[in-house]
Amino acid sequence: MSEKIKGLAILGSTGSIGINTLEVVRRHPERFKVVSLAAGANIGLLKKQIREFSPIFVSALTREFELELKRTFGKRLKTGSGADGPIQAACHAEVDMAVSAISGSSGLLPTMAAIRAGKDIALANKETLVMAGPVVMDEVRRSGVRLLPVDSEHSAIFQALAGHNAADVRRIILTASGGPFLKASFKGIKAATPEQALNHPRWKMGRKITVDSATLMNKGLEVIEAAFIFGLPAGKISVFIHPQSIVHSMVEYIDGSIVAQLSTTDMKGPIAYALSYPERIASGISYLDLKGLSLEFKAPDPKRFPCLSLAYDALKAGGTMPAALNAADEVAVEMFLKKRIGFTDIFKVIAGVLDEFKPAAMRSVEDAIEADRLARFKALSLCGAVA
Ligand code: NDP
Ligand code: MG
User: Fold this and answer.
1) β-strand pairing of 120-123 with 147-149
2) What pTM, to 2 d.p., does this model score?
3) Which of 80, 299, 324, 368 is the most exposed place for a label (fewest CB within 10 A)?
């Protein structure tokens, strides 16, 4: 066991990943200490987390929420809010590792700040890499920090790559459950409601990523995330539908061997691995029962799930194109959840944004933020047009 207790910043502590992270931490008080928490608007849960884990610093979405925390916990709790709060939480002097689990593009700046401050990163927020992969990975190398994937597919690939030479990899294979519309007809998908899209058959996750799983855009974002984490071109990244969600992803080597990582479907597994790497710790997930297990794999259907190819195209176009893809998707999913556009309009809006978007070089985080701004603007106007 490591000698020093690892100080953690948990960004997005009240979300699905944040809650699972705290469950892992709860099992291992001898290994982990919660130094800081950053949440959004769920102040009730945040207060419970503060009482249980006694962090030094806590951030909430607004100044009003921050003042409420001050009233409840007094001056001994250091607090923050707004855009700066999660950055302060991530960069606190006692933090060794930041768990990046804020949803959406709001995760980028705190994650980047933590890397610059020399903190190791347990990365759930895939948007950080989709938006600004090249500059984020440059900063990781420059700062000498470890970036450990929490996304289950990337954790699986990371585990399957261990002890091998990068040059021997033929391709990586990301698995996708296929989401709630795996067997739906084109007509059924067209009429899909937010309630149906949010009803994921395997994973319990936040709303945005659950809708992305239904369109397969989540897998598209993961292809881009994988390209940057593992330094691979689009042509070496495949996707297969695997409805059982038992094989979390695989690496195929040039000798024809495929190395896969299997486990039950529970994010506490990859979270625990990221927190304790290179050691393994009890994560609290149930062990896999191999008896009677049957595993299926099939190619995704590009006609019913066209979002996946948009992501491949954005990755190949490079520069700020993935940032535009991410922003357009965030707007389209939000509008779908508000019932302002239909399910298949999500694809139309993103495709419409990317058709007109002129990608610029990705030299800094500011380039990503500017692309994000432009693409959001265009996506909003297209949502008005298809509504
Ligand atoms: P949730 O929607 O469940 O949680 C999001 C968290 O971020 C909440 O704590 C929320 O606070 C907080 N938050 C949102 N906006 C802000 C903001 N502007 N400032 C501070 N905090 C904010 O999402 P998930 O946990 O499902 O996902 C988090 C990230 O992890 C996403 O990037 C997702 O793609 C990725 N991921 C998730 C997986 C999963 O299984 N859930 C799997 C792999 C990756 P509050 O609720 O208090 O408002
Ligand atoms: Mg995933």
Assistant:
1) parallel
2) 0.97
3) 299
